[in-house]
Every structure is written in C-alpha cells, then in structure tokens.
Write a structure and sequence with these properties.
Strand order of the largest sheet of chain A: 1-2
CATH superfamily of one domain in chain A: Winged helix-like DNA-binding domain superfamily/Winged helix DNA-binding domain
Oligomer: homodimer
Helix content of chain A: 40-55%
Distance between the termini of chain A: 21 Å
Bound molecules: iron/sulfur cluster
CATH architecture of one domain in chain A: Orthogonal Bundle
Number of strands of chain A: 3
Largest sheet of chain A: 2 strands, antiparallel
CATH topology of one domain in chain A: Arc Repressor Mutant, subunit A
Largest interface: A-B, 54 and 53 residues
CATH class of one domain in chain A: Mainly Alpha
Order of helices and strands of chain A: HHHEEHHHE
Number of helices of chain A: 6
Chain lengths: ~150, ~150
DNA sequence: ACTATATAGGACCGATCAAGTCGCATATTC
DNA sequence: GAATATGCGACTTGATCGGTCCTATATAGT
C-alpha cells in the first residue's frame, strides 16, 4: 500500500545520475544500470518511457544514450512517477475505467481526493535537482530552501 | 503505485461512520457494511484488526458491535492505515525483511525517506473527526484549520 | 559494406499481493 | 439453547509488479 514502484524508483535514480553528469553528452541505459546494479533491460524500457513523455532526449547508435530534456530544476518527481506508472491516484476510484463499485455511497472519497492532491503537491515540489545536489545542503545560504505544503482536509 | 488499499479505505469509512453515530453504544460490522455496501466478512476482519490495535472497542453477542476507543479527534488516518496495512513505507527498501538488493548503491533512498516522512505527517494530521464533520467546514470560526507540512528535501 | 553499439517496443513469465470467501470457534444476550 | 456477533485462520482468485527475451531499427566507427 502506498508504495512506490521500483520502476519509478529506478527512473528517479537514473534521472538523478544524468543530472549529476551534465558534462557528458549522453549516457546509455547500460551505463546507468551498471552504476547502480539495476537490470539493464528494465531500465532501458523505463528510459524509453521517459523519453516518450518528453523528460529525456535519446540518441541511438554508438556513443548514443539519454540526456535530460530540460534543466534538472524543471523536472519534478511527480512528472517522473506520472510518466512511468501512469496517473497518480491513492484511491481505487477516480481510476477512470473499472473503479470501486461503491463509489456513489462512499463518503470519504472527497476528503481522500484532497489528500491525494496534497501528496501530489509534495511530489511536484521535488525536482531532480533537489535529489542530486545533496552536498551543498547544509552550506546553503541564509534563505533555507523548504517547500511549504498546506493541507486543508 | 502509491495506492491506498481498499481495506484501509473501508476502515476509514467505518470509523467515520462510528464517529457520526456517537449516541449508539455499538454498531455491528454488518450494520456498517450494509450502510455502504462493503463485503460484511471483509469489514469484520478489518474491524477486528482495528480492535486489536486499540482503535476500537468490541463487544460480542447480541446488540454487540464496535465503538471508537478514543475520541474521533484523537484517531489519525495514519494510525488506521498502519493498523490495517502494516508499517508505512513508500519504498521497497526499509521494508525490514527482504528489501531491495541494491540498497547499498542506491542514492535516493535518503531523500525518499524524507518524502515518506512528509506523507506520513500529512496522514497523521488528519483525524477521523476531520473526515466526519464536513458540514461545518466553511462555517468554521476565524482561525481556519489547516495542517502545515514542511518538506525539506 | 559491415559490425558493434544503442534505442524502441512487443510478448511473455513468475512471484507477490490485494480482495474477497468460507469455515469454525467463542462470547453474549434473550 | 437459539440467535447474534466477534475472533481468526485457511483458502481462492485476479491483478499487478519485476524482470526476461526476442526482434526491429538507427547510428557511428572501421
Ligand atoms: S469510492 Fe470510497 S471506497 Fe471506493 S475507492 Fe473511492 S474512496 Fe475508496
Ligand atoms: S534502495 Fe533505492 S531503489 Fe531499492 S527500494 Fe530503497 S529507494 Fe528504491
């Protein structure tokens, strides 16, 4: 329950890795997979998905690979999860097609929808850059960087 | 991914229902199940779980049933989910026993752990009472009730 | 041209887990 | 003692996740 898929996990790791190597023009799926021990074929498909949704730019052939399509600051964890796992919903209803059959009688779907939005907001407030540049975290200048999320049930 | 189990859903609904009927000494699992169309046997086991974790008080026999063990304000959604679905973790690692085998090389588990805490905080800030008393939401007095959650990746 | 490298993507499989059912034991009230 | 209700474990079914395999295509270097 409420568990991130490993695919999304891997995707985040890969994007972070790409963000940490801005000098290289492109890194292959195998490069990234080897760096962490992720199954190469699996990661390949994940990166393909991220490419199709526009988060990555790919280049086939030798010395090919993937590179971030945007600045790491402009890519949110939410987008990554969305790309890999599809629409983000914590409840079974709101899942377009075959939802929970007691949707009409349910009285908590509205409040839960708000919780859903809140969590989505948290994810949206996290960028790949945030994951990557951990080292300067404490040495950050006066204005501490922190996302404020308001939750009104 | 990141989806609440229906069991937790049902549990929240049931608790809310109990919170809305404070006059009755106890409501049976069947009562609640019929009120929403939840499979009775399934809900029974959920309520038993909630009883075992101390969120509900049960009474067997005729006119028996369940009642909230505490005030609805003192029961958080987090506790409910925890009781029904077990420990709350969005990642596969930190799952005590058989975790992800690339835990050592993973570089995002720490940031994700912080996200985990943030989401847990959101859930903790929601009480059964919040789910139940929806009607006076807009008519609330000056100080608007809203949970502030700080997220520092 | 040929080959090595790399992306693109479909088919498939096994393990796990959620959801729900069944059966039986126990407690309580009438 | 019958009706009601909790308590609890075993079980079945279906979906989803994690992962593999196989093929097609694109590109760079020799
Ligand atoms: S309808 Fe109510 S019970 Fe069914 S999934 Fe949505 S929230 Fe959960
Ligand atoms: S170790 Fe990294 S990859 Fe494995 S589960 Fe934890 S976070 Fe996800």
């Amino acid at each position: 329950m409420l568990k991130l898929t490993k695919k999304a996990d891997y995707g985040l790791m890969a994007l972070k890795y790409l963000a940490e190597h801005p000098e290289t023009p492109a890194l292959s799926a195998k490069d990234v997979a080897d760096a962490y021990g992720i199954p190469a074929q699996l990661l390949a498909k994940i990166l393909q998905r991220l490419t199709k949704t526009g988060l990555l730019r790919s280049h086939a052939g030798m010395n090919g690979g993937y590179a971030l399509a945007r600045d790491a600051r402009q890519i949110s964890a939410y987008e990554v999860i969305l790309s890999i796992d599809g629409p983000f919903f914590i409840t079974s209803c709101t899942r377009g097609a075959k939802s929970c059959d007691l949707t009409p009688s349910c009285t908590i779907k509205e409040p839960l929808a708000r919780v859903n939005d809140t969590i989505a907001g948290v994810l949206k407030s996290i960028s790949i850059h945030d994951l990557a540049d951990r080292e300067h975290s404490d040495a950050a200048p006066g204005r501490d960087r922190q996302g404020l999320v308001t939750l009104t049930v």
